[in-house]
Amino acid sequence: MSFPLTRPRRNRLSNPLRRMVAETDLTVDRLIYPLFVTDGQNVKDPIKSMPGCFRFSVDTLIEEAKEVYSLGIPGVIIFGVTDIKDEYGSEAYNGEGIVAKAIRALKKEVPELLVWADVCMCEYTSHGHCGILHDGYVDNDETIISIAKSALVYARAGADMVAPSDMMDGRVKVIREALDNNGFKNTGIVSYSAKYASAFYGPFRDAAGSSPQSGDRKSYQMNPANSNEALLEVLEDIEEGADIVMVKPALSYLDIIAKVKQRSLVPVAAYNVSGEYSMVKAAAQNGWIDEQKVIYEMLLSIRRAGADIILTYFAKDAAIILKKRNF
Questions:
Q1: I want to staple 311 with a disulfide (CB 3.0 to 4.6 A). Which of 32, 125, 134, 246 is the partner?
Q2: Is-catalytic flag, 261?
Q3: Dihedral over Cα of 299, 300, 303, 305: its sign
Q4: pLDDT higher than 90, residue 121
């Protein structure tokens, strides 16, 4: 059939009707809120490049987590920020380190909140790379041993899921074996399976103090030109035991999210990263965009592409927007 018998605009006449026939849902249940935890007490340090985001000490992190939970956001992912760094990133697997302390506190004070722990070395190495460096090259097989030690520390602290973001080959298998062999069969793995060497990470690296001191991460993070390679990475991680796979960043990689969703039988997460966040905040502060509408449209596009879960610094904003339900 064709016009005038077919008029697709009939299904767009009112907000209730548009909502009823919507092909894609966006709910607060889909969101994970990234949080930065640092040393000290009573710390709530604004991140200049990420307006509205902060570095929290454990005590203020608890208050933030309570607010997050009250908004209906089901979980958070924790990133450590510390001045304790060495060549090997050994603070990453310190059982009394800042992330382990934060996890224990969160599970005690906000027990129903899901706690994911990012597992990587870059915040803890003196050179800023995501693993152990030898002659300018990150040693894959040596690094994954340290990565697994970190994951085990976070599992012991009470993390619901550990999230390796280093992009080393084989790390999901080694983590799964370490968890299973130590009685943590129920601790899940969210793998940053398709993490691209992106220019959109700048504000995060400012927030976490994790910029590489030399070189770049192109020898381990993915080439933005490649999409089939993402499927290779994803399928390998699933075979090794990943419970959830992730694409990072989100907005410039919606096609990758869609490809992965078509091939994956486990949930697919997407990380709406710091650069994507900060550009919106900067434009909104200058009055160039309607911030709330842009946030909604961006997150909806990530869901439409196929993401089951969205990690986003907009999570609190989105929770408030979704309560209004007016667009």
A1: 32
A2: no
A3: negative
A4: no
Is 195 assigned a catalytic role? yes
Catalytic choice (85, 173, 195, 261):
195
What six digits make up the tokens of 291?
Answer: 């911030």
- State how far the Cα of 200 lies from the Cα of 204, in Å rounded to an integer: 9
Ramachandran region of residue 197, left (φ > 0), alpha (ψ -120 to 50) or beta?
Answer: beta
Distance of CA 14 to the CA centre of its chain: 35
Q: Using CA atoms, how far apart are residues 103 and 121, in angstroms rounded to an integer?
A: 18
pLDDT tens string 153-195:
999 999 999 999 999 999 999 999 999 999 999 999 999 999 9
Q: Which residue blocks in 241-314 are alpha helix, DSSP H? A: 254-263, 274-285, 291-305
Show the CA angle centred on residue 13, arms to residues 10 and 15, nearest 5°: 135
Cα separation, 22 vs 136, in Å, equals 51
> How far is it, in rounded angstroms, from Cα 303 to Cα 306?
5
**What is the predicted pLDDT for the residue at 208?**
66
Contacts 24+ apart (CB under 8 A), 173-180: 173/240, 173/241, 174/144, 174/145, 174/147, 174/148, 175/119, 175/147, 175/148, 175/151, 175/241, 176/240, 176/241, 177/148, 178/148, 178/149, 178/151, 178/152, 179/151, 179/152, 179/155
More confident residue, 253 or 137: 253
Q: Is 71 strand, coil or helix?
A: coil
